[in-house]
């Protein structure tokens, strides 16, 4: 009888790829996890119990066919694993690296719930596509038809890139406009290399370029070209501009020198990783070496800032967050990584003001958790009279992002937006009420996740194709 290749979760323990030692990894910006060796990937995939109703899959925004690609990996059929994996995900090797799996697929794995430790879905997903690239299984983008339509995409982040990939394969001519000098959006200039090395992103940009996608970089829509011009030029437009307006700090001294925005700090660091000249590193304004750094916030952006400051050689790095550890929005895995690297978390602490200009301290208000708010999270409230000053000569604001005011910036009053300023679009198709204008990713959802942007991009691209087909069918019928 053939040996049962799966359901090994009782005999095989969960084992993540090796993590580089904290003292070593804090010296560079390389990813912290190594790749699985092939035997290890097969062994870990074999832990899956092949659920009839796979909760991992239903909690993956892309509904990846996880049990099937795990079975193929466990049985050595890696090329088939890759084919199944890439059928539902445009960038599986990116999601495998940076999805917060503990909140999505892995957090819903049933064997985790039975106390055996979740299947390492993300690490196997990354392994499959990294191997496919090494083995030459990743094919070039070959358009299946030569279509006449053109689409203009504003924003080369994961939402825009996923849509471009889908449309280019269908034969649509795609031009992506981005105000940065490199494509990738936050994959390139937000998320640091220790989570996602830059050549992984550039490899995808190059694949798209070879597949016929045109990139118009250093082009700020609204300044260098108008939105109206783009509508004239293309049969459809996709808005995938993300959210970049930083939520600000209040309180006395909040305008002092040395208090900087997380996005500026991370962009400068990522540019330096490409070898670019970064004047803000040379003049010290966005450079942490030898400084007492305080990062304010408790999300993914704050985690990336504290760990970047450690790698720049800060004297000390503290993260202030107004709730407790259990109620923070950032991934627990990233908090643990940050702690190992030497970051100190100050829970239940909010900035009340700042001393000095340039800044030399943060006045910290101690907090406690009160009643749950509308979202069910307990609201932080100040403890009267309990405050102190935390030394700081670089303060990084990582309180989240909001959408820019696109209707005003682009002179498009009729662009529909919600009361939060996000673009109002159908969640299944990305269609807005403006004819031929679609929107995806963070600019629709508010600050969200890469995997959701990819899903949105694929779905909007498909909706555009259906619209083009309907238009040509009605012309043919006339
Ligand atoms: P973006 O990636 O923001 O791309 C938008 C692009 O539009 C940018 O390139 C921008 O230059 C361009 N653009 C904007 N306006 C214009 C204009 N007027 N003209 C031309 N171009 C324009 N998500 C995860 O899943 N895992 C993580 O670990 C994670 N870490 C994160 C860390 C940080 C620091 C940040 C800020 C976010 C993180 N996220 C993470 C969230 C994730 O990066 C976003 O949800 C995702 O990138 C959104 O994709 P998008 O395509 O909508 O927009
Ligand atoms: Fe999990 Fe993200 Fe991969 Fe889906 S895309 S299987 S949520 S890591
Ligand atoms: Fe396998 Fe876990 Fe998914 Fe079940 S929930 S199919 S055990 S990965």
Automatic annotation (TrEMBL):
<keyword id="KW-0411">Iron-sulfur</keyword>
<protein>
    <submittedName>
        <fullName>NAD(P)-dependent oxidoreductase</fullName>
    </submittedName>
</protein>
<feature type="domain" description="Dihydroprymidine dehydrogenase">
    <location>
        <begin position="25"/>
        <end position="136"/>
    </location>
</feature>
<keyword id="KW-0408">Iron</keyword>
<dbReference type="InterPro" id="IPR006006">
    <property type="entry name" value="GltD-like"/>
</dbReference>
<keyword id="KW-0479">Metal-binding</keyword>
<keyword id="KW-0560">Oxidoreductase</keyword>
<dbReference type="InterPro" id="IPR023753">
    <property type="entry name" value="FAD/NAD-binding_dom"/>
</dbReference>
<dbReference type="InterPro" id="IPR028261">
    <property type="entry name" value="DPD_II"/>
</dbReference>
<keyword id="KW-0004">4Fe-4S</keyword>
<dbReference type="Pfam" id="PF14691">
    <property type="entry name" value="Fer4_20"/>
</dbReference>
<feature type="domain" description="FAD/NAD(P)-binding">
    <location>
        <begin position="151"/>
        <end position="457"/>
    </location>
</feature>
<dbReference type="Pfam" id="PF07992">
    <property type="entry name" value="Pyr_redox_2"/>
</dbReference>
């Amino acid at each position: 009888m053939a040996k049962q290749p799966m359901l090994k979760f009782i005999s095989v323990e969960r084992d993540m790829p090796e993590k580089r030692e904290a003292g070593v990894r804090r010296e560079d910006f390389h990813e912290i996890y190594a790749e699985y060796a092939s035997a290890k990937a097969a062994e870990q995939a074999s832990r899956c119990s092949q659920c009839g109703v796979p909760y991992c899959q239903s909690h993956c925004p892309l509904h990846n066919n996880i049990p099937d690609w795990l079975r193929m990996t466990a049985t050595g059929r890696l090329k088939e694993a890759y084919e199944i994996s890439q059928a539902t995900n445009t960038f599986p090797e990116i999601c495998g690296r940076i999805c917060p799996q503990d909140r999505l697929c892995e957090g819903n794995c049933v064997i985790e719930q039975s106390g055996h430790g979740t299947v390492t879905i993300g690490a196997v997903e990354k392994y499959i596509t990294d191997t496919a690239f090494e083995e030459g299984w990743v094919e070039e983008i070959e358009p299946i038809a030569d279509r006449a339509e053109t689409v203009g995409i504003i924003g080369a982040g994961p939402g825009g890139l996923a849509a471009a990939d889908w449309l280019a394969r269908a034969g649509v001519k795609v031009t992506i406009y981005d105000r940065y000098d490199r494509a990738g959006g936050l994959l390139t200039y937000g998320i640091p290399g220790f989570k996602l090395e830059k050549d992984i992103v550039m490899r995808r940009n190059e694949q798209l370029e070879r597949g016929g996608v045109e990139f118009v970089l250093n082009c700020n829509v609204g300044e260098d070209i108008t939105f109206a011009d783009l509508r004239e030029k293309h049969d459809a437009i996709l808005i995938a501009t993300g959210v970049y307006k930083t939520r600000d700090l209040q309180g006395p001294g909040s305008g002092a020198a040395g208090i900087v925005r997380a996005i500026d700090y991370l962009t400068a660091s990522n540019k330096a990783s490409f070898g670019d000249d970064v004047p803000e590193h040379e003049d010290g304004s966005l450079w942490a070496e030898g400084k007492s750094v305080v990062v304010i916030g408790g999300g993914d952006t704050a985690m990336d800032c504290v760990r970047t400051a450690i790698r720049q050689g800060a004297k000390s790095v503290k993260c202030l967050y107004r709730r407790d550890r259990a109620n923070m929005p950032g991934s627990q895995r990233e908090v643990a990584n940050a702690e190992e690297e030497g970051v100190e978390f100050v829970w239940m602490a909010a900035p009340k003001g700042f001393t000095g200009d340039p800044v030399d301290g943060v006045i910290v208000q101690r907090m406690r958790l009160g009643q749950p708010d509308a979202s069910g999270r307990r609201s932080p409230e100040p403890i009267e009279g309990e405050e102190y000053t935390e030394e700081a000569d670089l303060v990084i604001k990582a309180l989240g992002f909001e959408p820019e005011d696109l209707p005003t910036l682009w002179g498009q009053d009729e662009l529909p937006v919600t009361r939060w300023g996000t673009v109002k679009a159908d969640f299944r198709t990305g269609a807005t009420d403006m004819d031929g204008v679609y929107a995806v990713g963070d600019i629709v959802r508010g600050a969200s996740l890469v995997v959701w942007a990819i899903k949105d991009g694929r779905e909007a691209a498909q909706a555009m194709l259906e619209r083009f087909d309907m238009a040509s069918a009605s012309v043919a019928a006339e």
